[in-house]
């Protein structure tokens, strides 16, 4: 994967917060449980020990992932976008599809995407179709079910 890891400042802050929580709170608590469980004798049938060691591996794996993502992140602040008349990374876009459904989404980094909250990744088909479109433009979205036409109704960016 050679594409950049674009992220909003809020997305980077969320990753740092998760890393901080895992490293400073959850990991030490889990280490304490594992240490306690190890002192209870036979580890082969000790559920606290077995689960604790498994949880430590999960935490360490996530910590490595988060550190790498944070290190490689390219932070794009949508407030600094000079052209507010077109759709770019960080834009909040309202569009209507061919079924006359009005949808509002925000284009964010891969790690920030939460479709149920209207945050979609900049590499998603919808975001890619909308990129560089202006209000009133109709873009074609290719989906497995066929083509859909999206008309851009509004574009906004966070204010400074």
Structure, briefly:
By secondary structure, the protein is α/β, with parallel strands linked by helices.
Question: Mean pLDDT, nearest integer?
Answer: 92
- For the report, how would you describe the main beta sheet? 5 strands, mixed
Structural category: alpha/beta
Please count the helical segments: 3
What share of residues is helical?
25-40%
Ends apart, CA distance between termini: 33 Å
Strand order of the largest sheet: 5-4-3-7-6
Computed Rg? 22 Å
Q: Could you walk me through the main structural features you see in this protein, from its secondary elements to its overall organization?
A:
The protein is an alpha/beta fold and 160 residues long. It folds into two domains: 5-75, Transcription elongation factor, GreA/GreB, N-terminal domain (Helix Hairpins), CATH 1.10.287; 78-156, Chitinase A, domain 3 (Roll), CATH 3.10.50.30. Helices cover 39% and strands 24% of the residues. The strands form two sheets. Strands 5-4-3-7-6 form a five-stranded mixed β-sheet. It is elongated and about 70 Å long. The protein starts with a strand and ends with a strand. The model has no long low-confidence stretch (mean pLDDT 92).
């Amino acid at each position: 994967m050679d594409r950049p890891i674009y992220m909003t400042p809020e997305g980077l802050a969320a990753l740092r917060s998760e890393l901080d929580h895992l490293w400073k709170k959850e990991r030490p608590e889990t280490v304490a449980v594992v240490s306690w469980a190890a002192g209870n004798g036979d580890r082969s049938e000790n559920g606290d020990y077995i689960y604790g060691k498994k949880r430590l591996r999960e935490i360490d794996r996530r910590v490595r992932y988060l550190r790498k993502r944070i290190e490689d992140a390219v932070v794009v602040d949508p407030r600094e976008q000079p052209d507010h008349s077109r759709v770019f990374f960080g834009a909040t876009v309202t569009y209507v599809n061919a079924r006359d459904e009005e949808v509002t989404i925000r284009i964010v980094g891969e790690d920030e995407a939460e479709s149920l909250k209207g945050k979609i990744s900049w590499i998603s088909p919808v975001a890619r179709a909308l990129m560089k479109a202006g209000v009133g433009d109709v873009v074609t979205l290719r989906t497995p079910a066929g083509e859909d036409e999206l008309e851009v109704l509004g574009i906004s960016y966070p204010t400074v």
